[in-house]
Amino acid sequence: MPFQNAPAPLARALAARGFTAPTAVQAAVLADDAKNRDLLVSARTGSGKTVAFGLTLADLLLNDAGRCVPSGAPIALVIAPTRELALQVRSELEWLYAETGARIVSCVGGMEPRKEARALASGCHIVVGTPGRLCDHLRRGALDLSHLKAVVLDEADEMLDLGFRDELETLLDAMPKERRTLLFSATIARDIAALARRYQQDALRIDTVGTNTPHADITYRAVLTEQGDMAGTVVNVLRLMESSAAIVFCHTREAVRQLQAILTERGFSSVAISGDLGQNERSRAIESLRHGQARVCVATDVAARGIDIPDLGLVIHASLPSNPATLLHRSGRTGRAGKKGTCVLLVPPARRRLAERLLQAAKVTAEWSGAPTPAAIATADAERLLAAPFLSAPAPEDAETQTLISRLAAEHTPEQLGAALVGLWHKSLPAPVSVRVLTPDARRAAPRERDPNRPVRERERAPAMDGKWFRLSVGREDRADPKWLVPMLCRLGNIKKQDIGSIRITQDHTLVEISPDKAEQFASCASATDPDEITVEPAAAPRKGGGGGSRPAYADRKPKGGRSFAPRREGASKSNSSRKRKPK
């Protein structure tokens, strides 16, 4: 068997699942120098780390006969950042320990806590849960950690990013001092290292990733497209790069809702996953993806954490990730288990430099191109049809089908049959969209010189809008400037420039007027922004003649001093994210 150091029941389970050899992280945790030690492991998503720590726990759970002895209180605890990841881990451990008699209980938010408490009271060997729900059971006395021999922190960096430090420390402080602590993280940042120093003893450091290195099995492509053609470009990318499963990332819940509606209307089987879904809705969406009933998942980054979609061959960033780590983490959902994957970034021309800096910081080389055209998609469709497995499949042998085939061949020419087949093939596929194709190496046209004889008109002020006002958490000290505020507001609120009225910039904040008919939509979209974005909240109308500048007064004003939230500085550093909020 390929896993020579694994207990026999687990080795048989792995062989039945088609595992022929351990991955790098699995081999590392099975090595002799890792036995009975605390482990600090950096491994990317999809590297086989669930099986890795499942193998590591075997020495504590199994007797010489390869069985789990009856146990009241749990022997091992696995903590994961999200419901989906916790349930996925439980599913993996259940097939891995299927022959051993192990009882595995999950404790996650969105599920019935009393049912979980009854399962804990009935006795179990392994508990898998999220920090918040585990703390709830601990406070109520339902979770007994007194017999615990090992704890696993899966995706520890994600748990700290989501604000679960207090819950993790509560759980770790309640455990016996004599235990194994296995910490798995994509990156070992300063806060992860501090957690390891406090709660681990003589930990063995295992690095199977390297620092911010791209995935070797993922091909990166950057597609230059106009902001207004973004949805059409997503459609064309999905059509050109046919994949059994794909995920499209958007920044906001509203963007997810709109894009998923467009894809469904175009004929794609798609689901949306965002923070406003209930647990049952999320579970149904994920199951439809795993069972092939849906092909495309449109999601926000936070809501999609922990979701594992089998055979995911394509990741599309409809909005640029905020930093290199997010880019690599999002993209790492494809190219797993030795399979190839493709990652596509959709880049508006105004954000090309930001995208180039992002790719460079992530040490990723991307092939730049324009949006796929209907002609290119038609060519790819033709090649896929010619290679379709059903064309070379043996004909059914029943007499009725043979008679029908003979009649078709006798009554129609090969050209007629071929035309009918091509027509049916095209009818089954979503139609591509005609979008503007931008040439990646094209330079912006030089500004046209003004005719010196043309009369100069004095710019007219726009009439009063009498709209709704909103307060932005940036001001003059942050180098707030309408030149970048207006495009940002259009993007965040899904509005047009004409929907924006006066802009009044003060020292520490900015007041913006939005047209009455777009104010509700703007508020809904802006409230769903990523935590790294600028805070936007409703505000009272400013006093007439009060402080601050309106948009015309500030349009040509050069910002001075202070930190900047301008888009040209995004991605260069995280130092400007001091306003980041802790998730609840």
TrEMBL record:
Residues 441-462, 525-584 are annotated as: Disordered. Residues 30-206 form the Helicase ATP-binding domain. Residues 233-381 form the Helicase C-terminal domain. One of its GO terms (molecular function) is ATP binding. CDD domains: DEADc (cd00268), RRM_DbpA (cd12252), SF2_C_DEAD (cd18787). Pfam families: DbpA, DEAD, Helicase_C. PROSITE patterns: DEAD_ATP_HELICASE, HELICASE_ATP_BIND_1, HELICASE_CTER. One of its GO terms (cellular component) is cytosol. InterPro entries: DbpA/CsdA_RNA-bd_dom, DEAD/DEAH_box_helicase_dom, DEAD/DEAH_RhlB, DEAD_box_RNA_helicase, Helicase_ATP-bd, Helicase_C-like, Nucleotide-bd_a/b_plait_sf, P-loop_NTPase. Keywords: ATP-binding, Helicase, Hydrolase, Nucleotide-binding. Belongs to the DEAD box helicase family. PANTHER family: ATP-DEPENDENT RNA HELICASE DBPA, ATP-DEPENDENT RNA HELICASE RHLE-RELATED. This is Cold-shock DEAD box protein A-like protein. The lineage of its organism: Bacteria, Pseudomonadati, Pseudomonadota, Alphaproteobacteria, Acetobacterales.
